[in-house]
């Protein structure tokens, strides 16, 4: 939407109109719009027009435009501080080094560094294609600060799913009672729901319905948002073990397996089937022109986007004020639901099955989907680690040996005695983290009360030497885990005796 000269007003995913004043770019340090009348511009009108024209012809969503505009203002402000022209290579180099220093100091994450550089490059390239050359030699960071997603405790999970399902089902009932109140209204649809003994007025009811459905579908399927939100409402039918299913298949470019396939039961008694059919019915009537299950037509897209889910969570937290076990705000996240899906599958069928269910490698599941609620993580991990460790190809602490891909995928069991063989290996790698240290500490403690074979004292000495290699803080956490949970699952019961007999 065009405002006055040099001003653009864009509708954000939450329906809010946001003003972006490009005239600010002409003034030193990019001041607020209400200060411009008192100041003298230091850059030409053509400078502002070049930036404005680039955004007018830019692809993407309004949310991405808004983010790029914000990054551009930060960049121009930085250039003013160092007295450099924003459209020069030296300015880009200085700004990227500034961001790199902030990343080294821990002020920003490496993911923020990467996103900022990427957005600035896209913006400057849109202004003038030659400016892309300025980024040929900037620093590229590999992702080193991975975030381990935290899942929900059983209480949190039940509270979230019940709230989402109540919201979803009541909004569907409201839609069935008056479809005209939803069709073609986008953000203007309104409904009333009764949840947790309170009445709630739901504005933007259509978007809330679709978003709640997306979270419920993620809970039941374990799909990530990039795959889930591309689901169509017309799916092929397949038969598995004599039962009919709707089969959803989607390409996941960065996954180990090129295609993700998810079966949805056709039987009406299935919660997943009910949710799918409700979403499909509403999508067919509110957006007959497209094929998406999570249809929500806006000026920028034909279906629900991740930004809409973020907007839903802001409304969800304000409306229901649910509390997590530690007293913090409780709200749905697809990544957190995947943690619970991962752990449940790992407990039942092992880490390889969990990885395949999430369409990730085992290492990806271990790194990014291995934590539950802080109140339950240790106890949940203790109950499932034995199964997980017996399922992975080799222990984290073992010497890495090249293996053919076919062998890596088919070798599903880990012989516990192989861990002993690694203790004396000069090439072994120790990861400085509490659960690895807990494994060694548990072995040491168990060996103190064992007299099984003549080799055990030597094994104990090696384990103690390795345990001392961990940092003091990690050793302290390992002791805390041992005090709280007892020995590591690998050394519980008859495991130690069985392995020692083979040493």
Question: What does the model show?
Answer:
- The protein has 19 helices and 7 strands.
- It is mainly α and 503 residues long.
- The chain has 3 domains: 7-135, no CATH class; 154-338, hpI Integrase, Chain A; 414-500, no CATH class.
- The strands form 3 sheets. The chain has a 3-stranded antiparallel β-sheet with strand order 5-6-7, covered by helices on one side.
- Strand 3 (190-195) and strand 4 (198-203) form a beta hairpin.
- It is flat.
- The relative contact order is 0.07.
Largest sheet: 3 strands, antiparallel
- Overall structural domain count: 3
Structure summary, number of beta strands: 7
Question: Order of helices and strands, N to C?
Answer: EEHHHHHEEHHEEEHHHHHHHHHHHH
Residues in helix, %: 40-55%
Our estimate of the beta-strand percent is 5-15%
Quaternary state of this entry equals: single chain
Spans of at least 5 consecutive residues whose pLDDT stays below 50 are: 253-258, 359-417
Shape: flat
Radius of gyration: 28 Å
Spatial order of the strands forming the largest sheet = 5-6-7
Structural class given helices, strands, pairing? mainly alpha
CATH topology label of the largest domain:
hpI Integrase, Chain A
Mean pLDDT: 76
For this structure, what is the CATH class of the largest domain? Mainly Alpha
Head-to-tail CA distance between termini: 75 Å
